[in-house]
Amino acid sequence: MINLIEHPTRAPEELKKSDIEKKTKKLQNRLFELQRLLYANNHHSLLIILQGLDAAGKDGTVRHVFSCVNPMGCNVKSFKKPTEEEKRHSFLWRVYPHVPGKGMIQIFNRSHYEDILVPTVHQTLTDDIIDQRYDFINSFEQQLNNNHTILLKFFLHLSEEAQLKKLALRRSDPRRRWKYDEADGNEQPLRGQYLKVYENIFQRCSPDFPWKIIPAEQKWYRNYLIAKTVVDRLEALELKYPGS
């Protein structure tokens, strides 16, 4: 079982930022071409899930890693606290409309996993219901796979010290203050509990769709790891243009 406290949050010291940024640029150029192939083939789709604690860098990942793709073939959905209408339905009800169609890339900034995380930490649902949600999520992701949707799940990991610094910056920087929510301060003391739930998620989710834990304190390394994972997975499809 993964112990997140022992998992690195920074790049290996021997890596050079300038070298990694050059590699990332090449990966983004390749991702642009692979997206065209994905769209032209119209057979597979790609769902990217970004999870992490507050200030982990989910928005920045979307902005920096995927700025290279054609917006006509890529959508982003941010899942926040369920609305009253959403609460009247199954927790996956609000997710299904955003599943990517053939040839499309869909990015979830937070996801259906929030509906396990928050109720578990705040004990708003029984253990039996939480257990059912694990089963439903595994079944849901298997359905996606059966429909030729590639599923990549990333957990952006940073240390408590780095998280506190980022939250403080949100409060003090006028350009970032709009991102700060008082609820962030209430949730931060529960950090250890959230990490334990994530560890359980990593253990109980289907091994066919494993999580990749991303050291996220340095943007350049985070961006590189995610871009490389996406490119490698699309490359493995060996896509060709129709008629070629």
CATH class: Alpha Beta
Q: In what order do the strands lie side by side in the largest sheet?
A: 2-3-1-4-5
Class per helix and strand makeup: alpha/beta
List segments where confidence is low: pLDDT < 50 over at least 5 consecutive residues: none
Query: What coarse outline follows from CA principal-axis ratios?
Result: globular
Mean pLDDT: 95
Q: Given the structure, what is the number of helices? A: 9
Number of strands: 5
Number of domains: 1
Helix content: 40-55%
Ends distance: 45 Å
User: Can you summarize the main beta sheet?
Assistant: 5 strands, parallel
Radius of gyration: 18 Å
Structure description:
It contains 9 helices and 5 strands. It is of the alpha/beta class. The protein has one domain: Rossmann fold (3-Layer(aba) Sandwich), CATH 3.40.50.300. It has a 5-stranded parallel β-sheet with strand order 2-3-1-4-5, sandwiched between helices. It is globular and about 55 Å long. The mean pLDDT is 95.
